[in-house]
Amino acid sequence: MPATANAPTTSTEHRSIEHVLARLDGIVDWARSAESPAGYFAALYRRVTHEVKLGIEAGFFSDGPRMEHLDVVFAQRYLDAFDAWRAGAPPTRADPSRTSSRRSATERGASRLPPF
User: Fold this and answer.
1) Domain ranges (residues) in the chain
2) What is the pLDDT of residues 53-83, one digit of tens each?
3) pTM of the predicted model, to two decimals?
4) Exposure string for 69-106, b = 16+ CB within 10 A, e = fewer
């Protein structure tokens, strides 16, 4: 059950890793003040996201903007789930037509994507 302390500010869409990091900072700060274990995952996720940001800045990825987009889109799933949990709403569901392991990479269009 969600804690009753004030939740961190929510946003419906994040456009950069900086936005994601700021939102994760808010969740961690909230969790500390609420003494909620929900902050453990947010703290770990923030650390990984920060490392991805550093990798992009250092040119580690062949397509930095694409990697940032992937990071932000993926983070949005977690942030949406966190917001749903805080609101007492059911979590969102993945679209099985986009995640089915029964479909080949070619069927999912992966062969058309350039490598990272």
Assistant:
1) 17-88
2) 999 999 999 999 999 999 999 999 999 999 9
3) 0.70
4) eebbeebbebbeebbeebeeeeeeeeeeeeeeeeeeee
